[in-house]
Specification:
Blueprint lengths: L1 H13 L3 E6 L4 E5 L2 H9 L10 H4 L3 H8 L3 E4 L12 E8 L5 E9 L6 H27 L16 E4 L7 E4 L2 E4 L2 H12 L6 H8 L6 H15 L4 E2 L4 E2 L3 E3 H10 L3 H7 L11 H19 L4 H9 L7 H8 L7 H26 L3
Parallel strand pairs: 6-11
Antiparallel strand pairs: 1-2, 1-5, 3-4, 4-5, 6-7, 7-8, 9-10
Amino acid sequence: MPLIDKLLVQDAARAGLIVTVADQFGRVLSVHGHPEQVAAAAEIGVREGDDLSERRIGTNAVGLVVRTGRATWIHGPEHFLHRMHQITGAAAPVHEPDGRLVGVLMIAGGVRVAKPEILALVKAAATAAEMDLVLRSMRAGRAGAVAAPPTPDASQARLGLDVLGLGQPQLTVAGERVPLSQRHAEILLLLTEHPEGLGADHLALLLDDTDLDNGTIRAAMSRLRSVVGPDVFGSRPYRLRVHVATDVEALRAALDTGDVDSALRLYAGPVLPRSSAPGICDLRDELRVRLRTAVLSSPDANVLRRWTACPEGRDDAAAWAAYRGTVDRDSPLYAQIEAKIRVLDRRLGADATQMQRFGS
C-alpha cells in the first residue's frame, strides 16, 4: 500500500479521482481520494466491503479484470448498473509471484479516465506492485523466514493464449508474451477445447482433412513442448495438464452470461483467421454465429453500432435493419443507416441477378 499510495493515490486525489483496491474476488478492500469523491463513490456502490464481481453487479472494470485477468476500462453506459453510468473505471490485475491473481487496482472518475494513458498508469502501478511482492518474497527467503517461491517455469506459470483477430497468435507465460506459429496455436487451442484429450489420429483430422501421419503429429508436439515446457501436456492421448486461459474462453463466458457488450470488446476478430484446419474452422464459425445472434437479439443501440462498424458486421443487412429500429426517425443518423441499407439491398439484388444469369 505505501507503493500504491505513492504511485497512484496522491496524484489521483489531487486530480479529483479515486483509487480502489479490491481482492482477487472483486471485493473492495479500500477506496482512496478526496473525501468528497470517496463519498460520491460510496453512493453508487464503490465503498469498502462492496462486491464488484460481475456475478453480483454485472459489467464493471473490477469485475471484468477478475473474470479475464486482463487490464481494461469501462466507460459510463457500458456499466450494467444505471447508477454507475456516471463514472469510468480503468483497472489492472495484480498477481502473486506464482502467477495467482491477488487483487485489482482501479482508477475511477469522469470521462477523463477514458484515456489510454490512464489505463497505462494503472497497469504500470500494478506491475510495480507485483515486483514489490517478488522482492518481499526474495528478502524473506534470504532472511530465512519464509522461503521465496521458486521462479515458475512454463509448466507451472499462468498460461494464456490469444487467437482472436488478424495478429500473430500469442502465448502468455507468467506475464511474458511469446509469439506462436500458426500450427502450434492450432494445436494448443484444440487441446483447450478438448480437455479429455485427443489421440494422434483425432488431432490429425482436426488439423488437416488430408492424411497427416502420426510422425508429423509427434514432431509438431515435440516442437510445441520446447516452447511451452515439457510438462504442460501429456500424451496418449495428448491432453493439457495445466489450465491455459484463452480469449476464446473469455468470449464464450461473456456470451454465456448474456454480456454482449463485453463479448464485442473481447472479439478482436475471427479465431485464427488464416487457419484452414477443420477443427479451427468449426470453432470460428460457432463463435461468430453465437456472437452475431446475441448482437441481433440485443435492444442496445451501442451494441448494434459497434457490430456494424466492425469488419464482421459492416455488410450485415439484418444488423443494420435492427440498428435502424433503435434510432429516432428524425435523427440524421437514421438517414445514414437507411442509405447503407439501400446500398446493401442493391448489392444483394445484383448478386442474385448474377447468380440467375449463370444458372445458380
